[in-house]
Automatic annotation (TrEMBL), chain A:
GO terms classed as biological process: maltodextrin transmembrane transport; maltose transport
Native source species: Sinorhizobium medicae
The keyword Iron-sulfur is annotated on this UniProt entry: no
GO CC terms of this entry: ATP-binding cassette (ABC) transporter complex, substrate-binding subunit-containing
Protein name in UniProt: Extracellular solute-binding protein
Automatic annotation (TrEMBL), chain B:
Transmembrane segments: 21-47, 84-105, 117-137, 168-189, 225-246, 275-298
GO CC, any one term: plasma membrane
Organism per entry: Sinorhizobium medicae
Classification via Pfam families: BPD_transp_1
Origin organism lineage: Bacteria, Pseudomonadati, Pseudomonadota, Alphaproteobacteria, Hyphomicrobiales
Keywords: Cell membrane, Membrane, Transmembrane, Transmembrane helix, Transport
Family note: Belongs to the binding-protein-dependent transport system permease family.
Topology of this chain in the membrane: Multi-pass membrane protein
Superkingdom classification of source: Bacteria
Places the protein is found: Cell membrane
Domain ABC transmembrane type-1: start-end pairs: 80-296
PANTHER family recorded: ABC TRANSPORTER PERMEASE PROTEIN, DIACETYLCHITOBIOSE UPTAKE SYSTEM PERMEASE PROTEIN NGCF
Name this protein carries in UniProt: ABC transporter permease subunit
Amino acid sequence: MFTKLMAATALISASMISVASAETISMWVRSGIGDSFKEVVKAYNAAHENKVELTEVPFAELVQKYATAIAGGQAPDALSLDLIYTPAFAAAGQLEDLTDWAKALPYFNSLSPSHVKLGTYEDKIYGLPLTVETSIFAWNKDLYKKAGLDPEKAPATWEEITANAEKIRGLGGDTYGFYFSGGGCGGCMIFTFTPLTWGAGADILSADGKTATLDTPQMRKAVDIYRNMIAKDLVPAGAASDNGVNFLSFTNGKIGQQSLGAFAIGTLVTQHPEIDFGVTLIPGVDGKPSSFAGGDNFVVTKGTPKLADVKEFLEYTYSPEGQKIMAKYGSLPTRGDIANEVLEGLDPRLKVGLDAIAVAKTPYTLQFNDLINSANGPWATFTNAAIYGDDVDGAFADAQAEMQSIIDAGQ
Amino acid sequence: MMTSSLTSTTRRSRLKRKSGWRGLVYIAPAMGLVTIFFVLPVLFTLWMSLHKWPLLGEPAWIGLRNYTRMFTDARFFNALGFTAHYTLIVTIAIFAVAFPLALFVEKQRPLVSLYRTIVFLPVVVGLASASLLWVWLANVDSGLFAPLFDMLGLTAGRINLLAKFDTAFMTIIVMVVWKIAGFTMIILLTGLQAIPTELTEAARIDGAGGWQRFRHLTLPLMRRTMALALILSVTGSILAFDQFYIMTSGGPQNKMISVVYYIFNQSFVSFNLGYGAALSIALLLILVTLSVVQLWLLKVGDERP
């Protein structure tokens, strides 16, 4: 009896050891960024002894859930974190320092620079690029044709876009020339609207992130362009209260033109093959294009016992094989050195998303949520008040003052 | 004589003490629940409110600074102002609808239970679900109201109800009245039914008209019921959050941030849990004060009707 028990115990512990040698890494990803990360995890799990257990968290709750999970000691080993939040979590001392390992990667210098910049806090690297996302301008070629426009000619200025929108609106009914989520969606607007001013050399924050510089002639001009299109009834009425839920309105086929994310190219190609569309860079108010480089950084929770396994997984996603899978499902390559090779054979329009990286910008601030993304923050409020409100000067003054006070309170 | 009376008093007081202990045992489960789910959380909130308490990292003691910050926080006062505005309007609207409804369904008439059921039906829908439903109803493209008003010729073209403060506020008020009035109606109905019919008859025989009976008989006898309905309605309105969060995300242009919404934003968007806790304590004090004032105004402690 006793020997039997011993044998059983030995067997159990032996099996436990063998289980322990194949680690399971727990990882989180936010919803709404497409399937690229899910697919690369699937491919990794199929080919490796270690397994990644992926949990999808609604994008609006990820930061809050991750923060509470850290506080409660239940955090995942690693996660795909919206890159703009990397500085805040790094500053709070919750992320693993990856500096030495990252700099030893042979392709470190060709990793997406915006991501690495936001992943760096006080000269240490806490986040590395996982998915790359840029904003681009899309137009519906069928509607262009119907409105008598050249469907192959990408508009290069906002005057041109407005004129085209008028012609498309002329088709009547519920066909509109332009769309944007104008109901206080800070995330949508920083992504699609600020490139208008970036291209013209202005920004909403100073380079060190310590001064709000919202009220610029460029921003005034950008606001006027949007106001003008609304006054001319070129934008559906629903846009005024769209808090981001209908961001992909372009996919309904009745919107002539819209600024979108590169991920939408993947969505359109795979889920809406009936829509014939073209993409180009978002023109600035003076015609010079720009873009918002967004996406996710890969970060590791401080103190995880599975650091080596996590690194192995990340190296796999950086391999040509991993990059190819990511690109196929809509995420642009994070490695510049093999980008062209990765995009070979995929939809040629993804190339525009890649070109955008060269002119793209990302605001660096520890208070991104408070300033920009929060539905009740100054930026979200400003976009609605300035574009739809009656008091443009007041909207500028209020938002400028409130942004500055939030920045000052956070110092 | 002397001793016997002495012993009898001690026995009586011992008896009294015994029954006192028994009473405590009876209410112990309730007290336990209240302690665990109300007293302790409030004490912990009070403790948090004296700290700078970020969601990440270590809390730091800052004494009363969260409370002094409150007095210079314009956004907090905006939220208070909006909440007061909302509470006033929605309470009047609810009573204006619920009282006539209660008078209507109180009298026995054909199909009265059907009417009661219809009016009460929205109450059983959750507030969040009701808000979501109304977001769709108010949607300018795929909803009901905008095309309907357009068809009836009330508006020139379809208008986006949720895009402007006035129309969005109106939509939310109508939604809340639709959702809550049935509940207030039931409370008022119980009060109406508790009025003895003899009194009404006596007043009628004395020659009191309909309005006089309502003003001098029904209203005074309904004071307690009214107090209950009023406190429930005011408290519920001051704690309003779901409808603003779901229907307008606090918009247009942040004009619909209620106090609870502001506390939520401070705590879980800006991660200032300490300041959020201080705001919660302030709100608790406001609610207690308001309830005491309402009870005093309606003289509920007064035994005589």
